[in-house]
Amino acid sequence: MTKVVSPLGSVPGLERGLNILRLFRRSRPSITPPEIARELKIPRSTVHRLLQTLEDMGFLCRAEGGAYTLGAAVLSIGFEYLGSLDIVQLSSAILMRLRDTTQGSTHLVVRNGTDVVYLSRYASAAALTSNVSVGSSLPAHATVIGRMLLADLTPAELRALYRGRPLSRYTDKTPTTLAALERLLAEDRERGYAISFSFFERGVASVAVPVRNHTGRIVAAINVTMIDGGVDEQTFRGAIKDETCAAAAAISAMLGAPAVSPALSPAVPARRRKQYVV
Prior knowledge:
By secondary structure, the protein is of the alpha+beta class. It has helices at 12-22, 33-40, 44-56, 72-102, 144-150, 155-161, 178-191, 233-254, and strands spanning 30-31, 60-62, 68-70, 105-112, 115-122, 137-139, 194-197, 204-212, 218-227. Strands 6-5-4-9-8-7 form a six-stranded antiparallel sheet, sandwiched between helices.
């Protein structure tokens, strides 16, 4: 194995732990502690402590005969990396199809602290519905697409995120206290999506749905936006919402998410919903 030269300021314990993980190969699924000590040239007592820590964290599993194999935590990190790397490309065809089906603009966002960052935007040819562009940031608490991402946080995580940060008002519908925000998030979790009319931007209607990864955690969100009144409210709350839920489910499936049936409007027959094949 090629020796990795430690730069100034490196953490030896962390470096050794990562080097242990790098010893595993498809052709070498299990390794014994003496082999690790010999190949990495570190004391057996140190190897024992490192292996114990990696096992406790789920990165290694103890096999028969005292050998070790990779644990599920390694696979989890791999899925997270692939998901973050591919989500824009994976979702592009689905978001373009959603735009064409609904005649609204479609977007993909992720959360960065208390903001959402737009990774994708597919503008409607029908009308200008939003002035956001790829790379734009908007406050998560003030947008329904941002609330989709905040809904994955526990109350303690939400309080920690907004500790010392004011919830600025953008319209008369903006939650300006954590209690008000938590009430909205509880409703969002129950529905599995959110619909708004002039919630953040006056004159703009939006339906937002979360995107989940293989663990079921929310890693992104998509929405459809259009001019308020561009379609009747029943259609927006019915067919438009159902199309958006189906698109989010298709993207989530590409990321390995467990199948979740989105809430569908009884008034909209399933045969009328577009199929987002993955």
